[in-house]
Amino acid sequence: MRLLDGKKVSQDILDEITAAVALLPRAPRMAVVQVGDDPGSAAYIRNKIRAAGKTGIESEHVHLDGKISQSDLNTRMAELSASNLDGLMLQLPLPAHLNEGEALEYLDPDKDIDGFHPVNLGRLISGLDCYVPCTPAGIRELLKREEIPTSGRHVVIVGRSLIVGKTAALLLLEKSDLGNATVTVCHSASDDLAVHCRQADILIAAVGRAFLIKADMVKEGAIIIDVGMNSIEAPERRSGYRLVGDCDFDGIGDRAAAMTPVPGGVGPLTVAMLMSNALQAAKRYIGQEN
Ligand code: NDP
């Protein structure tokens, strides 16, 4: 089984971004907006801020009180959008009393480096130029750089969230060399999940359930992209937990042709594609400044 080393591929992408940033007349400027103190979000934001620093992108962590009202959050998003930032993103999930869709409407779509504004999602589904959501973009980039063709192949995606499953399906369906797949999307109401999974030439798991996908659900020679990030108890570790994917990595190893590890697979690619979108945003604004 070939290990699809997301960490290495993401480093290659970050190196290319660093070189491109160095050629710009000024550094790109981005911000990550966090509401409240979700511990998972804090770790993701640290990785994003670190990657920005390494590539020469100026980044700001805007940390808002978890009790902020919807209208104050909307106003803050509008203010940040009107500032001299090239790009910004709202770290999800938000505290339960806030509506993320409403807050995202106050984000300038031209600065929406996560690609979740309805304008960018509409452009994506229309096949127009847009900011592509980072996790599906990272999966597509990994397949491209690992020379795994998608054209004509059956991709089965488990999970239909907007941020991963649904948008990955759209990308892989695109009529292009990096798409052209036959795509099946499964979810919690799908009957016979194993039957669908066993048909996959490329299986993408984006569920959030540790080890849901077992070896007997995988076709011999399949490519496995494990997006899931699940924290499970590990008393032998100082932290008391470890991160695992949605796939039973050890069991599947004998059947799959190639597979992403967790951690070190899709996660670093998501961060790299955010930097790529921030670079794209800066180029757009620097173009207007000249
Ligand atoms: P969501 O909870 O938004 O979506 C999960 C999806 O899985 C839903 O479509 C749900 O179905 C489906 N599902 C749940 N249980 C089952 C089941 N038993 N069988 C089939 N489908 C099921 O999660 P996200 O998409 O946000 O994230 C998924 C995972 O990916 C998480 O572990 C998350 O941490 C990780 N992730 C990793 C990223 C990375 O960069 N590596 C980035 C983003 C997410 P239904 O729609 O019917 O509820």
Sequence-ordered SSE layout with sheet pairings:
Elements: E1 2-3, H1 6-22, E2 29-35, H2 39-55, E3 58-64, H3 70-82, E4 87-90, H4 100-105, H5 118-126, H6 134-145, E5 154-158, H7 165-173, E6 182-186, H8 193-197, E7 202-205, E8 223-226, E9 230-233, E10 241-244, H9 249-252, E11 258-259, H10 266-289
Parallel strand pairs: 1-11, 2-3, 2-4, 5-6, 5-7, 7-8, 8-11
Antiparallel strand pairs: 9-10
Helix pairs in contact: 1-10, 2-10, 6-7, 6-10
Bound molecules: NADPH dihydro-nicotinamide-adenine-dinucleotide phosphate.
Gist?
With 290 residues, this protein is of the alpha/beta class.
Structure description:
The chain is α/β, with parallel strands linked by helices and 290 residues long. The chain has two domains: 23-129 and 269-289, Leucine Dehydrogenase, chain A, domain 1 (Rossmann fold, 3-Layer(aba) Sandwich); 134-259, 3-Layer(aba) Sandwich (Rossmann fold). The chain is built from ten helices and eleven strands. The chain has a six-stranded parallel sheet. The chain has a three-stranded parallel sheet with strand order 3-2-4, sandwiched between helices. The protein has a two-stranded antiparallel ribbon with strand order 9-10. Strand 5, helix 7 (165-173) and strand 6 form a beta-alpha-beta unit. Helix 1 packs parallel to helix 10, helix 6 crosses helix 7 and helix 6 crosses helix 10 (266-289). The chain is globular. The protein starts with a strand and ends with a helix. Bound molecules: NADPH dihydro-nicotinamide-adenine-dinucleotide phosphate (NDP).
